[in-house]
Amino acid sequence: MPQDTQPSPAPASQPDPVLASFRKSIDNIDAALIHILAERFRITQAVGEYKARATLPPADPDREARQIARLRKLSEEADLDPEFSEKFLRFIIDEVIRHHEKARGG
Amino acid sequence: MPQDTQPSPAPASQPDPVLASFRKSIDNIDAALIHILAERFRITQAVGEYKARATLPPADPDREARQIARLRKLSEEADLDPEFSEKFLRFIIDEVIRHHEKARGG
After folding, report:
1. Interface pTM (ipTM) of the complex?
2. Which of residues 34-63 of B touch A (CB under 8 A)?
3. Which superfamily is assigned to A17-104 in CATH?
4. Cα–Cα distance for residue pair B22/A63, rounded to 1 Å
5. Residue A78: which of B31, B48, B74 has the closest Cα?
6. Per the CB < 8 Å rule, is B40 touching A18?
7. Is the pLDDT of residue B10 over 70?
8. Which of A105, B3, B55, B68 has its CA at a distance of 20 to 30 angstroms from the CA of residue A29?
9. Within 10 A of A92 (CB to CB), how many other CB atoms are there?
């Protein structure tokens, strides 16, 4: 068989096909994350409005502690660093607080 | 009708049922987020190992810029603050870099 029938390596300008496949999965996952986060913020916005109407306090430290404990446990089961899941929840809660402050005209 | 047949308000010790329902949705969403993130880190770990084997550079600023532009667009469509989606991707990428540094024995 002549050597030129063998697949030639992709030129440097073409993306690596293995890397391109990984990136497609990451892009799909990121789109899922964005849409799930959008829904989460829709719910926390409704919670903020409900708490204001029902004159419930905006923050609930006991609830937060339970959420963190639960997410750390879920993370361990999913082989994700529990420290990261706690950082992640705090990152999201900070954004929720920012939204509530903005809604209050801040 | 005697007044005592009317539903009495939940005692202060009992959780508000509307709030409890919102929180159930948030807890379901958070479990989904944790599992999707766990899968994302599994893929970025494989990417890190592949890049090391294929002697590809660990960072790719063009790819990051394309990811950010795409997520900002998806966020707008999902009614999520595009600034937040960019902050979120940077938060995740920082964690990926931390994982890679740890894997390199840092």
Report:
1. 0.85
2. 34-44, 46-47, 50-51, 54, 56, 63
3. Chorismate mutase (1.20.59.10)
4. 13
5. B31
6. no
7. no
8. B55
9. 22
